[in-house]
Amino acid sequence: MKDQEFELTFHPKPTLRKLYVEITARCNLSCVMCFRRSMKSPQGDMSEEIFHSILEGTKDFPHLSEIVFGGIGENFVHPHFLSWVREAREKNLEVTIFTNGTLLDERKIEALLDLDVSRLMISLDSPDPLGYDQIRGHNLEKLLAHIAAFNEAKKRRRLDRPWLISEFVLMRNNYHSLPALVDLASRYDIREIHLTNLMPFTSAMVDQSLYHPALPDDLDDVLAKARLRSFSGQVALIEPEFSLKTERRCQFMEDYACAIGWQGQISPCFRHLHSYQEYVYGRKKDVLAYDFGNLQEKTLYEIWTSQKYMEFRYKIGHGIYPSCPDCNFVNGCDYVLDSDADCYYNSPGCADCLWSRRLALCP
């Protein structure tokens, strides 16, 4: 049988629906599991010119409905953050905000309520003051006071939004506290808890991951208790996987989303916004920053509809890339050393991505 040749033709379309915008790479905390600690990229704030080019570019995408303010930094350290949220809302974009919650005060709370933000996602990795301090280096009681003030302001103004959602990074030293965290979330009107597994960035942190080298014996029991309490407390528990599954799904591809770094670079997802190191099943890997263009040079539409970006989205969306974690040759392969490319010659390389296996959950 003769070899058959196929030709794919890509037709540029304004299919972008969701933007993740990193307005700053700076943060007021230095959490133990944050890969900012191994980040090799520069840290700074997004300029007004870049942000306004983003908003200007939204007019070219009729299905673009949501902007997520988040990235490697803390949004509230940026001096223009609240005014930029206002400008996004004036464009009729739904707004989700990631925050560690430590900088919330009365003025910021009232502003968020005035702006009718959709969701406020707060990092909360322990219901115990000592455990929270060890992870985040901050006082839990102060954070809970901010959340209580936020809820009181919503109640006073008879508002249902923004929804409060917490993010919890699962590690061996905190997963036992998950049922208690569900109870705390119920008391503080937190609607959802998003769980994600730790992605270690040092060899010492590898032993803190739940999925490697073996699952804790009591993990199922802890999760069962947390689920039961989530039902009674009316808190949705969003769980990751804890072992490799055959299915691979990229949430950024499925949501027709992209990530925009503080310097204006358009990356396919958060993972490729910056250069840092991670340990994938104990293997050290250099994740390299990768972008398909920069808003300082091209428009959002030009970048999204570029041949290279469209081809990348097609391949990832259809699973046309290898799988490193369960490959027989992984221990002798140079492709797994960094994310520059994979053995199918895709660039960037997504073959080692544990987010696509739902071991780590995209925000």
TrEMBL record:
Biological process GO annotation list? Answer: molybdopterin cofactor biosynthetic process
Enumerate the spans annotated as Radical SAM core domain. Answer: 13-232
Q: Where is the signal peptide?
A: none
One molecular function GO term is: 4 iron, 4 sulfur cluster binding
Asked if Iron-sulfur is a keyword of the record, the answer is yes
Transmembrane is among the record's keywords: no
Which superkingdom, per the lineage?
A: Bacteria
Give the UniProt keywords, A-Z. 4Fe-4S, Iron, Iron-sulfur, Metal-binding, S-adenosyl-L-methionine
SUPFAM superfamilies hit by this protein: Radical SAM enzymes (SSF102114)
One Pfam family from the record: Radical_SAM
Which cofactors does the annotated protein need, by name?
A: [4Fe-4S] cluster
NCBIfam families in the cross-refs: W_rSAM_matur (TIGR04317)
Name the UniProt record assigns to this protein? Tungsten cofactor oxidoreductase radical SAM maturase
